[in-house]
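thread: overnight batch results

M.L. [08:02]
morning all. the overnight job finished for the chain we discussed friday. pasting input first so we're all looking at the same thing
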Amino acid sequence: MNLCCLSMKKLPLLFIFSLLLSCGVKLPASYHEKSLTEQTYLENDRNTYALHFRSLPLQIHLDNADESFQWNHTDNPVLLKNFRQRPYFHLYYPTDTLILTNRHISFSQVINFRDIGGLQTSEGKTIKWGKIFRSDNLSGLKKNEFQKFNDLGIESVYDLRTESEIKDKEDRLPETVRYIHFPTVKDNGDLLTQLKGKVINGEISEEESIKLTLDLYRGSVTENLPAFRELTYKILSSDKPVLYHCSAGKDRTAIITALILSILKVDRQTILNEYLLSNYYRSTKIEKMLGKAKLAKVIKPHLNLKVIENFMKVDAQYLNATFEIIDQKYGGMDKFIKNELGINDQTRSLLINKLTY
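M.L. [08:03]
and the structure it wrote out:
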């Protein structure tokens, strides 16, 4: 009798355990592949770096390295372990010198932090590293990571979130960094909470989730244009490294990035590829969130996982919606930059000279 009762008591626990095991969500392979393919690149995992290259350089020089760094001309990748500063490699080729550092910067709880440097422009120039950074919110930045953050030389941080989004998720920053609250969309208070409630209750369809996201991207260069114009100017006019972010670093942050890269004459496909990196760096988080949502369907059966994924991911059609408005309403990117962002050809050339080599 006791054994029977004991077994009956264990059944709910076994059910919950088996349910947890079955709630993993595997995203499509595209989430785990880098959208931005670069022949030569530097990967970063904490203080370990791996330099990959296809075209063999004649010589490799590492800034801020002691005499122990040696390249034996056969290592590929070149491994750099326990290097506490962000490394800058100089790869010497017969006709060119390539400067390289890590695009993604690893922090424990800030997962979408990256440098927009290293991208090639349509004029054959390269955007300078260490000048403009983008990220998700910095509420998870640890105090023991402040020195690593300071080593990047970032002087100003622009927070694009509304006050409602910031509540209980304030940025954690070193005291030396200037924090600027710069919301780029209207603060609609509890509308975000209401939207989450509708998602949980299955009141938003897949089509509606896509439309809402497309409206955000279109609105950035229509009803929210003044804020995006001013922020773009502030970032580009800074003489010190700048970082900007929203909540996840994937939508409003992406639109600002697309405008900046367009001003510097990066082609549209490269801009899209850089944009889609957010799926790669956020893939683990998205899988975890979808796993929790799958488990929540036990008590909220109308919960639609695809709707949640649509809100959490980035998609080429989202950013293309911004480009389409620019093309259709403003006559193309060059006219938009000149007439709507207020950057004439002379100023644009100065910015290109300032931020590329």
